[in-house]
Amino acid sequence: MHSRARLSFHEAVISPAVVNRYTTSVFSFLRSAFAFDAPCALMSPRSSLRRLAALGAILVGLCLTAAPASGQDLPLAMDTPLPGTDSYDDAIPTPTEVIGHEIGTRHTRPAQVVRYFEAVAAASDRVQLREHGRTYEGRRLIHAVVTSTDNQENLDQIQRANRRAATAPTQVSDEDLQDRPAVVLMGYSIHGDEASGTEAAILLLYHLAAGSGPDVEAALENAVTLIDPMFNPDGRDRFVDWVNGNRGGTPTADPQDREHNQPWPGGRTNHYWFDLNRDWLPAQHPSSQGRLDYFHNWKPQVLTDFHEMGSEATYFFQPGVQSRTNPNTPEMNQELTGRIAERHGEYLDQIGSLYYTRETFDDFYYGKGSTYPDINGSIGILFEQASSRALRKETSKGELTYPFTVRNQFMTSLSTMRAVVELRTDLLEYQRDFFANRDEALQDTETEAFLVDRSAQPTRARALAQVLDRHEVRMFDLDESVQANGTTFRPGDAYMVPLDQPQGRFVKAAMERTSTYPDSIFYDVSTWSLPLAFGVEHAAVSDAPAQGQRLQDPSYESGEVVGGRSEYTYVLPWGKYYAPRAVQRLHNNDIRPRVMTEPFTARVNGSSQSFDRGAIVVQVQQRGVAADSIHQVVQRIAEDDYVDVYAVDQGMTPQGPDLGSAGSDILDPPKVAIITGTGGGSRYSGTSAYNAGEVWHLLSERMNVPVSLVDLSDVQYADLDRYNTMVLAGGSFNDLPTDDIENWVRNGGTLIGVEDAVEWPIEQGMVDLEERELDVDSLVQDQSYADLDNAYGAQGIGGSIFETNLDPTHPVAYGYDESVPVFRVGTGFYDPSDEPGASVGTYDATPRLSGYLSDEQTEQARGAASIEAHEVGGGQVILFMDNPNFRAFWYGTNGLFLNAVHFGQIL
Ligand SMILES: [Zn+2]
C-alpha cells in the first residue's frame, strides 16, 4: 500500500496487483461519469478505492465537467496528484457519509459543515473541535485543531511555546525552534458566496485526519493546523440557500440563470451586510472577535484566506502588487510569501491550472485577512479562485465548474501545508525576529506612545481600548499628568498605549496618521487611524511618560444617578456615546423626553451643574407612566447606557431656560425606514448594502431603535406615514417616487442621505447645492497610455480622514466640539449652502488629517460642505457627504448621524 500517491487511479496508491484489479472499475466509473447522464454514484463500498473517492471534489469534478467538453479540467482531473499520500483510514467518516452528498455536487450548508467536523473530531485523535463564538444569527463558529497524536498530547505546551516567540522573543533561541511544530491557520470563505473554499476545508480535514503517507505525516508532525472552514456562516447559508434552492436536477451553466444570480444583498456579507474581510482590524463583529481570540492564543506563523473572484479570471495567490504592500510590513514577509508561492505554483502546474501573482491585489489594509497577519509576525496569504458561483458556469474560456474550483483551493491548501513543513524553521524564526526586532523596525518612528483621554468620552475611549485589547495590545494608566497637543492627560482619566510592548509594531500601524504612500492606488481605504475614528482626545508623544497600572478591563463603566431619586425631573446630558440609546430606552418605555436647545445650569445635590444644548429632560410626573417605572428606567440608563443622569428638583434654573422652556420640544420616537434593495434596476444598481447595513447595525444592534428595511421597489406602494425618518444610506435611488418622498418630507419627515446618496435629493431639487467641478481628464492628459490607470487612480479618494468644522449650536452637532474627524470616500465635493443655518459642517482649510489625497483634490475639499441640513416645507433633508457610520468603528461620528435621527424633528 505504499507508492506515489496520486489520485490518478490507474497508477495510484495501491500496489500494482491491486491496481490491476481495480483499474477497470475505476475507469468504467470515470467513463460513465463523462457521459454525465450516469449517476455520479461512488464505487461499491467494498472497494478500497472508495476512500480515495471520498475526496469527492476530484471525482465529482469529472461528473460535472463531463457533458460539455470544456477541456479545462477533464484530462487533468483524471490525474490529480496527492503527493505523499498512500491511503485513507476507514475509521474516519468521509464527507459523503456524514453530509450525504459528494463534495462538489452541491453547495454544503454551514450546519452540514459543522456536523462533519464534529464527526471527524469524534472519530480521530488527530482532531479536536473548538467553538469560538456564535454569529448574529446564532450559527456556531468552529475551528478544528489538527496535528499528530503526539502533538495533541502536548498541545498546551506547544501553544505556550509558540506564543513565547511573540511575547518574549529574546528568550527564544534558534535551537528552541528546531523541534517545534509551526502553527498554520487555514481559513476559508469569509465571503459567504465565495463558496469553494469551505468545500476545500472539508477535504483538507478529511485528508489530514484520515490520510497516511509521508506528506500527511510530515504535515501532522511539523504543524498544528487550525482549520476554520467558514469565517462567515451567516453569509454562506444565505448564499447556499439560494443556489441549492434554484437548481433543478440538471444544473445549468447559463450565467443568466437564476441560480447564478443571487438577489440583493447576496451572501458575501455577514448578517448586517458587513464585509467581514474588512473587520479584522476594527473587530466589531462577533465572528471577528472570536477568531482574533484564538488567533492570538496561538499566534500562527501562516494564515490563509481563500476567496473567489470573477469567473473569467484564473487563480491568484499572493504575493500581490509589491508597491502596494503596507510599509509597516517587513520585506522578509513578502520574500517568504514568495517562497511559499512557489509551492502553490508547483501544485497547480501539476493539475494544469493557470494562475497569476504580483498583480491586481494589494497587501495594504490590515483589516483584511491576508494582511492582518503581516503586522502580527505572521504570513497572510490571499487566494482568489475564479468563481463558478453555481455548479457550472459558461465562460469565454469554456465551462467552469464548482468541483474544479474546489480542487484548486484544495491543492493550494495542500501546497500551503507542504510549504509550512519545508519552511517551518524559517517561518518560526521570522516570527520570532519580527517581535525581537521591534526596536529596530520602529527606530525612525518619532512616537513612543499614544495617550488617550477617557474623561470627555469615556465610552468611546473604552470602545477603542476594547479593540486594542482584542489585538493583545497593552494599555497603562499614567503615573503623572502629561500635557500634549493642548490637552492635559491625567492619571485615572487617560491611558497610554506605548510602542515599547510586544505589539508595538501593530500599535504604530493601527494608531498612526499617514500622509505619504509608495503608491497612489488603493484596493481599499488608505487610512484607519483608530484614535481619529473613535473621536477621542489623544496625542502621539515622542517621550513615553512613566506608566502606571496596566488597564486590565476595558469594559464600559456604568454611570450614576447623581442626586439620587428625584420627584421632579431627571436631566441627561447629551454627547456621550450611548446617550441616544438612553433616549430610545425612554421611548421604548413610553416615557416622553424633552430636549433643551439652549445651555442652562440646574441645582443638583445642592450645587450648580451646567448642561449643554441637547440635554434631555425627563419629567417624573408623566401622564400614563408611574413614577416608579421612570425611576427604574433612569437607573438602567445609568447602568447600561453608561451615562450619568442628574436628579433636578426645581424647574426654575439659575441660568439659561427653565426646564419647561418653550424651546424644549418633546421628542417623538424615531420611526425609521432604511431604503434597501435594488429597485427596478439590475441587481448591481440601487442601494449600497454595506451602507444600509451600517445604519441598520447602528440603530438596531447598538442603539435599540427598531427600524424597517423597506425595499426600493416597494416605496411607491408603502404607507410612508408610518415613518418620520427615512435613510438613504448610499447608492443610487433613481427608482424612488420623487413626488411621494417630497410630499412626505414637506409634511414633516426627516430624510437623511449619506455619501453618494446625497445626490438624489440634490438632483430632485429638494436641496440646492452646487457641485465643485474638477476636470480630471485634463490632469492626466500628459500621461502615457500605460500610466493612465495610475494617473486616474491618483485622483480618487478611496478612504481618507478629513477634519470637519462644526456649528455646535446646530441640533445635528449637539454634543460635539467645534471640529471632528470624519471618514470620506469619493470625490463629489459641494459648496456649502447659502441658506442661513443649513451648513452644519464644512471641511477645514487644511482638510486632510490622515490618508491619501492628491493636491488637486485637497484644493477641491477646502471649505467644501461636509454636513448640510435643509428645511423643506415642514420637514428636513439632512445630508452627510462623509460616512459617519463607516464599518461600525467610526464611533466618533456615529453621534452626528444619531442626532439627525433623534433631533431631525426639531429643526
Ligand atoms: Zn472574497
TrEMBL record:
<dbReference type="GO" id="GO:0008270">
    <property type="term" value="F:zinc ion binding"/>
</dbReference>
<dbReference type="InterPro" id="IPR029062">
    <property type="entry name" value="Class_I_gatase-like"/>
</dbReference>
<protein>
    <submittedName>
        <fullName>Secreted protein containing N-terminal Zinc-dependent carboxypeptidase related domain</fullName>
    </submittedName>
</protein>
<dbReference type="GO" id="GO:0004181">
    <property type="term" value="F:metallocarboxypeptidase activity"/>
</dbReference>
<keyword id="KW-0121">Carboxypeptidase</keyword>
<keyword id="KW-0645">Protease</keyword>
<dbReference type="GO" id="GO:0006508">
    <property type="term" value="P:proteolysis"/>
</dbReference>
<dbReference type="InterPro" id="IPR000834">
    <property type="entry name" value="Peptidase_M14"/>
</dbReference>
<dbReference type="Pfam" id="PF00246">
    <property type="entry name" value="Peptidase_M14"/>
</dbReference>
<keyword id="KW-0378">Hydrolase</keyword>
<feature type="domain" description="Peptidase M14">
    <location>
        <begin position="107"/>
        <end position="394"/>
    </location>
</feature>
